[in-house]
What does this fold into?
Amino acid sequence: MSSTLTERDHGSHVLLDVPPDLSNLPEVRAWVQELATRVPLSEARTFDLQVVVSEAVANAIEHAASAVAIAAWLLPDRLIVEITNDGQFTPGLYKDQESRRRGLGLPLMVSLADQVHVSRLSDQRTQVSLTFIAEMQGPAENAEQSRDEARARLWNSAFKWLVIPIPLLILAVVILEALGVRGSRDSAMILTVFNTLFLTASSLSIVFLAARDYLARGSRSLLYLGAGAIIFTFAYLLAGTLISNPNEAVTIHNTSMMLAGILFACSAVRSMRAREWVEPVGKPGWLAFTLGVGVAVTAALYLAAHFGLIPAFYLQTQAWTPERDAVLGLAVTSFLFAAFCYALLYRTERIRFVLLCSVGFAMLAISLASLLFTHASAGSAVDWLARGGQWLGGIYLFAGVLGATRSGPILSVEKSLHELEGRYSNLVNTSPDAIIVDTRGQCAYANPAAARLLGFESPGDLVGHQAPDFLAPASRKDAVERISQIYSGGTAAAAEERFLRADGSELLADVTRTRVQFDGDLGVQTVVRDITERKRGEEALIESERRYRKLADENQRLYHQQLNIAESLQLALLNIPSEIGPARVGHLYRTATESNQVGGDFYDVFEVKNGHIAMLIGDVAGRGIAAARTATLVRDVVHAFTHQSLRTHEVLRRTNELLVEKELPGFVTLFLAVLDVETGTLRYSSAGHPSTLLRRKTGEILRLGNGSPPLGVSENSTWKARDVGLAEGDLLLLYTDGVTEVRRNDEPFGEERLARIMGRKKIPVRHLPELILNQVLTFSGGVLKDDLAILALSLASSPGEDASAAQTRFKQETLLG
Amino acid sequence: MEISKSSLSGVPLLSIAGEVDHLTASILEEEIQDSLNSGSQNLLLDMAKCPYLDSGGLGVILSTVRRQRGNGWLGVVSPNANLVRLFQIVGLGGEMGFRVFADLSEASAFLASQ
It folds into this structure.
């Protein structure tokens, strides 16, 4: 196929114009495929990207018959594709039977892309924005798993390098011993040269790698490491070979070592302060303890030497001074300090991890060797051991550097990162989205769009403010939590947050946060997209869709199989009678407005043998067909078991057994109660389900069942049954967490509000669920993120006193039913 | 995209070579209609040479399956892993009248057992 479409490079992004003709689709897909190789995306994700872009372009051409512009931003961690066209984008809406199949486009796009935004631009154009995250290879668990695997590989390879030098060293010592190379320090030229070359080469390699790390990532911490390595080399070159006076040699050697050690320690501390690790250091307390011990042991050794309790730490053949002693002491202390810091810094970036680890091990070996050295006479066993330690250190450095250099095309990675950074800053400056970078909790950079959005005159006015200054009180707590999560190496999902403008007004925005390097510091970049308008657009879209659906006939409406199931579930629920024996029942099930997948809420009320009424409510974790199937299964199974046994905990145990045996994914929460109509005793058991509320006729509210494991988790779980007596006028309210977890901003609806609604007397139980739903919707502004189910049951006549009448009616109904 | 017609144990077999998208979906739709009009209630689509299929093609398959519901089935032969994923997403996996065969021999074995 001859290429008719040409990509244009706009610096920060690339652009492709597509004429309004569906025959261009294959070429668009070929371009997308090539685009995906630049991110890069896996084969399956590339296919997804092709489908999603192709869908969006086809939709624009079919509905608006206008030319389409595709813009793509290739960022370090993601690919953003924006498809803009003149006219209206009508995802998911279909006007006639023939084009009904077009309606599959949006569900596909939403399922395949990591983020989909549809926005109406001010000039009557529509923009579809699609985001593909580079690392995401599917569901989050997979990504986590692959990260774990990568980490495991890293440890293996790194430690291979760290362990190999030990036998080599032993071999070297044996060979030298056999060659008879021994004797005094002055004459052992070969050893001195060996030492010097080894350590000099590895130190210079560290300088080189540190400099490259700075150029590629802007990390200044490693510059200290590099400077330390230079001085380290100086110590060996000068003290080892060039200075002939042994006294001066030792002084220069020790002073240089001290300086290098202090620089290494600075580098380590700076790395930690800038949080340049991807995984948080596991136990800060343990870290401090280890460092403390290292410093204390060294200090104690020196004090002991000073007071003559142990042989002094100096070369026996040389005169010593307290000053030199102190210098060497400081050197060893700072080396130890740096060594422990580095060994504990855990990086997932392979090159740096290997480098830091080997530096850490090397310094440990050298520090210990230095301690021994000072107490060694030339040619003695201690002398050999000390030299061995120093070589080991050198080998660690060398192997680390070798491992880091060999562990992949470092240069090309760095080059592309560097290139991207240039592109990136250009993108940030011209981005229509507001971008704010925080370092150490303060705003360090804001782009012009951020100043406009938040009502500041210039971006500079934002600098120095703390992140919460820009947030409305309702979002502050969660936002700060998300920011600290990112600082400590976690990821935070995109969220909606309320921002505070300079003039005090609020705006609703979509927020994405990522970790960035900013001026050598670790920072958090916040991309803020004003969605106040989009939210309105979306609501209008949902509203028109809802209205349309009402008009469409049943066949057109049953579009997704998902919806089919939702409806058949609801149909089953409609069979619940409004009266059973002395009990009056009200119930309600409502699907989420925010998801087109079915949830796993279920409930049931039915009569059991000998004048008992069973009621249950439950919630299957997850959404979709699998959850709905499990819900139906559990409901039927509990139904059947309850007919066999009225001991509710026994029913839960058997249901659990079945669920565990079937190895169904996820878990199920369930509240099951059996009412003995004759005595008024309600026996109930709860498996991790939110408390059922019981309102006494007196107005007192009791909470039934909590703090128990859900079903389907462990075959060893057990449950208890409890009894409570019911009397006439008592009201039971069973519900799923879709009710209490509904949120306004971040505040949940909560059990208290439910209890208050129940407290209002004289609401017929049949209307209570409806009333609760209205309150919930008013509270959340019409949004239901989760399905919800409510089951209310009241006792019309008092059991016991009027048992015979109730029994009679109950039996009649059973017969009628 | 090209479609060639043959049959397997009496069931019409449409072999798709090329990509099925919004432009080419109507061709597939016509061919399917033709085959069903010729009297068969069941239909096989050989997708071994179909690397790409989007909502255009999925819509055709889904509406065919829905229309045939209770009367016959539509079998897809040798679809690649990406296509199978899409079938799941749009809910074809739960349709009674939709079958996936790993290859033609599996399809013939199934037909023989009928």
About this structure: The two ends of chain A are 70 Å apart (CA to CA). The mean pLDDT of chain A is 70. The interface with chain B takes residues 22-23, 25-26, 29, 44, 47-48, 50-51, 54-55, 58, 61-62, 100-105, 107-108, 111-112, 560-562, 625 of chain A (CB under 8 Å). The longest strand of chain A covers residues 506-518.
